[in-house]
Q: What sequence folds into this?
């Protein structure tokens, strides 16, 4: 059973997500077993590990360094100077409960792709701490949710015939040491 603990101010700790990919008709794609990813955040630092517990993304807020990794190697991060296509946000009147957290729902539309983001005001970071983060769309999402972290996302991409769902299955609030945000830090 998943544990969920949070602070009413800023969340520090980890969120484990489970992912599922289907066609628009509901046929399972890619993996028979739902892969997981691990997201960690503390202050203005974040990191993400893939299903093999290999580092995928790392952002160090103090230096504004953003790294992406593929097969253990640093790959060029997206350029913050590239023009991003417009994202529209719409708050929906419905709510949901995920791991005991009451979530609000935000609809995002970008380039014909629709995404529903379920977020709880109980689990938030200071959005301003990520104002310079070049991870595509991250700061805009945090602005739209007032710093609340997503607990479920459902993305419908009709051009690629894919529905991608990511949902939190475990939330662990805990302080993280600064040395946990390095390219060699292991997922715990």
A:
């Amino acid at each position: 059973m998943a544990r969920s603990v949070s602070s009413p101010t800023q969340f520090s700790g980890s969120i484990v997500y489970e992912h599922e990919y289907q066609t628009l008709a509901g046929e399972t794609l890619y993996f028979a077993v739902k892969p997981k990813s691990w997201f960690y955040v503390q202050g203005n630092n974040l990191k993400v590990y893939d299903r093999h517990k290999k580092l995928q993304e790392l952002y160090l807020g103090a230096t504004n360094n953003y790294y992406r990794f593929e097969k253990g190697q640093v790959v060029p991060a997206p350029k913050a100077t590239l023009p991003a296509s417009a994202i529209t946000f719409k708050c929906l009147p419905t709510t949901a409960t995920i791991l005991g957290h009451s979530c609000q729902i935000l609809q995002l539309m970008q380039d014909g792709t629709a995404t529903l983001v379920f977020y709880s005001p109980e689990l938030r970071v200071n959005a301003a701490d990520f104002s310079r983060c070049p991870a595509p769309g991250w700061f805009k999402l945090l602005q739209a949710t007032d710093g609340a972290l997503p607990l479920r996302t459902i993305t419908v991409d009709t051009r690629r015939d894919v529905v991608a769902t990511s949902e939190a299955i475990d939330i662990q609030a805990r302080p993280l040491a600064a040395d946990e945000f390095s390219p060699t830090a292991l997922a715990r």
About this structure: The chain is about 5% helix and 50% strand. Residues 117 and 153 are 5 Å apart (CA to CA).
